[in-house]
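Researcher: Here's the sequence for the chain we discussed earlier.
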Amino acid sequence: MKTVLITGCSSGFGLEIARHFLERGWQVVATMRVPHDDILPPSEHLRVLALDVTDPESIRRAVEAAGPLDVLVNNAGFGAAAPFECMPIATMRELFETNTFGTMALTQAVLPQFRQRKAGVVVNVTSSVTYKALPLVGVYRASKAAVNAFTESLAAEVEQFGVRVRLVLPGRSPETRFGDNARPHMKGIDHEAYAELVKSVFASIEGPGPVTHSEDVARAVWRAATDPASPLHIPAGEDAEAWAAEHR
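Model: Thanks. This is the structure I predict for it:
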């Protein structure tokens, strides 16, 4: 029986990815900063572990407790939207610490066992916003684009060891509450000069149109993890697929 470790499983994409693998008979190590055993159905194939991807000791403990892995899914992350001129440097650093360096650090911790066994898959979940320049999300976009670039190079590095690396790029999703999660990071920011732009961007984020559902992301991650013929970049969701087509 194969084992997958998934980060950011407390809600949204990570929670659905964990469900998806459990339903298909995998051993699932679902990680989150504050463990909640009751958010997934009880299963002898499920372990819930504490993991803060910005804390090296937390990473060490989680990887040690997880044991041998077949797939690592780096899904943990958060978004913040604000005019670049107004965004605090502290928020910028937090975005990169979680979205970028957290992904890199956990991947680095798991890679030795994959290399030694000459098998394993790393799936990095980023964002389709990397396909298209949008206002207010420049720093968030940069933190995800950095993971895209890192993933592409890593794939070329570890292919020789039989290790596969893939990218899943979701679109906007009502299930991740991006707008709600982003607003606290805008508190106290004076963006009066950008008020109309902020209003219109948040309206577009939360407005009608094609979206990405958690199931779309779970299916894309499953494909990345189990199909050796899958492409390096896998858009997830109707809107993400449209943006990917425009980008091509």
